[in-house]
Amino acid sequence: MQRKMQEQELLKLIDRKKIPGHVAIIMDGNGRWARERGLPRSAGHKQGVESVRAIVRCSSQLEINVLTLFAFSTENWKRPPWEVNYLMNLPEQYLTSELPELVKNNVRVHFVGDPGRLPQQVCKAIGKGLEATRENTGMILNFALNYGSRAEITQAARKITQDVLAGKINSEFSESQFSAYLYTGRLRIPDPDLLIRTSGEYRISNFLLWQLAYSELWFTEVYWPDFNRMHLLQAIFDYQQRTRRFGSS
Ligand code: V07
Description:
The chain is about 45% helix and about 15% strand. It is α/β, with parallel strands linked by helices. The protein has a domain at about 150-190.
């Protein structure tokens, strides 16, 4: 009852006309959440997926245009094989249970990252998600999988160099021309307005380095498995209290 009251209170304070268009989230703290409960790390990831379900639902209801979730970084391959294996099953599991609802809610699934190293079962699940939601016109649910920002920028530089050498683009290309070579540019996803990171870490960790240039940053001590719609509403409320300057003072 108490939680509901607070939620309605917050909802009243939020300006529905100033909802951030693109929210990106670094979902951190699953391992610590599990350790503090004496549970295996997999239990933290499992509960983390529940938070994903809830936050996707809430974001779509709030009419956020793009929600980008950092699900697996290029660094995460260094984790123990059993854990990597467990994580690699999550995209398929999630889509198997959620795809009907995503389709119904007009959500379009997208991906950023290097598909090269992803196991076939993940590529298949992703392909299915893309295919089933490609006609949808509502929120873009963008999963960052095997994503690293420096790798993204480096491949963009390589590709633009090829196009310059092939005479397809002038070597004096603009920032906006360059950004079209990033994963997000190819998908026409605008830069994030708001970045959320959970679990008391105050870093960007190679996530969307180019795209976050002017984003508002919001950090919380809450571990990702405990992150719920109240926290999202709080982040959006705080975002709305800030004045964005895009570099001008
Ligand atoms: C993962 C759960 C959330 C906390 C962070 C790490 C663990 C959802 C997905 C997912 C990815 C693609 C897709 C559908 C769902 C996911 C990984 C890890 C690797 F199409 N959660 N989640 N993928 N975690």
